[in-house]
Amino acid sequence: MKVQEFTEVLGADYYAGVPDSQLKALCDWLMLHYGIDPKHHMIGANEGNCAALAAGYHLATGKAPVVYMQNSGEGNIINPAASLLNEKVYGIPVIFVIGWRGEPGVHDEPQHIYQGEVTVRLLEDMDIRTYIVGTDTTKEALQEAMDGFRAVLGKGKSVAFVIRKGALALDGKAEYRNGYRMLREEIIEHIVRVSGEDPVVSTTGKASRELFEIREAAGQGHQYDFLTVGSMGHSSSIAFGIAAQKPDRRIWCVDGDGAALMHMGSMAVLGASRPDNLIHIVINNEAHETVGGMPTAAGTIDLAGVAKACGYPNSVCVDSFEALDAELQAARDRKALSFIEVKCAIGARADLGRPTTTAGENKEHFMKYLEG
Q1: How far is CA 343 from the centre of its chain?
Q2: Could you give the 3-state DSSP secondary structure of residue 262?
Q3: Which of 42, 117, 192, 269 has CA atoms 20 to 30 A from the CA of 245?
């Protein structure tokens, strides 16, 4: 189905969401049609944030908004869906559009398998009526489903369209770029050279995939790294949890701007606690690149300034390899919590692979290395 037909059937003029590769056609259409426009389209920090933005839109207009996300974001909407939107509270209707990663019977990455199994069940448990959109769904069938949903929305209840792989299509695509030159994979290579045999926790998405391939190319083992393949936004907290229990080990966290924004409160917890054996690096390409390249809010804020305000005693921003190498070495040599924001270009190798070890094997090897 063409995404233009999909949006026409929905009939909404406000969208808030967190980009997803399964919804790339919709995300690109929104960027081409609206861009980032507070009146019509916002990319939120996390899915709960988007539900709240949508609630504000409804309070101001009386109309039903759309919130789009990958199904991994369902966890982030449980609280606002149950305690804000639900008809037993304020009765605020929302149309959720959810990319179905890990659909049973469809091969996917390990972090999506269980989430895929419970996607529809979670929606049902939250009393959100659901319609599944596949490659064979016609505009007429979608219209019939939406007609039925309008009565539900009119009662202050929410509904959801769950989107199967390949169900939405767009002629053409949006192009995303920024003005920076350093590529993320090269940045991670510099980090690996300085971190040596220190434990590294890397964020979900292409950063972990690149770290794995860098180790492979160098003939190194993978026991040094915990690859956070899911739970976007939590790698710095995982790294802090390790650092607190292993005070004699220096722990590195390779984070992304979208992930850092998703649960930015973790930076306040880190800054308040000031673990002196943690180095927190945020590679900032101002984009949700792993799922298509749509922009994040990190292009308009000072992440290093945020870290400093949260209490990090050392916080810098770099945009060259010379400055990066100097700050990596300084962070390694000092015994104090450090934050390094690295400005990064959008882009990755077309042949970038995925880890060949399982998530369970990664955990076991990493834990054994920490014991040693």
Answers
A1: 18
A2: helix
A3: 192
User: What whole-number distance in Å separates Cα of residue 44 and Cα of residue 299?
Assistant: 13
Residue 295's DSSP bridge partners are 287
Task: Give residue-wise pLDDT tens across range 332-369.
Answer: 999 999 999 999 999 999 999 999 999 999 999 999 99
Cβ–Cβ under 8 Å, residues 156 and 93? yes
In degrees and rounded to multiples of 5, residue 15 shows phi and psi of -130, 135
Distance of alpha carbon 287 from its chain centroid, rounded?
10
Tell me whether strands 15-17 and 129-133 are parallel, antiparallel or unpaired: unpaired
Residues 6+ apart with CB under 8 A from 235: 201, 202, 203, 204, 228, 253, 254, 255, 259
Residue entry with tokens 């920024």? 178
Q: How many angstroms separate the CA atoms of 146 and 101, rounded?
A: 23
* Residue with token string 């919709």: 26
Q: Which residues contact 245 (CB under 8 A, 6 or more apart)?
A: none
Look at the pTM and tell me if it is higher than 0.85. yes
What is the distance between the alpha carbons of residues 71 and 246, in angstroms, rounded to a whole number? Answer: 34
d(CA 281, CA 304): 10
d(CA 320, CA 344): 9
Task: Look at residues 64, 79, 201 and name the one whose alpha carbon lies nearest to residue 146.
Answer: 64
d(CA 326, CA 235): 24
User: With contact defined as beta carbons under 8 Å apart, do 174 and 31 qualify?
Assistant: yes
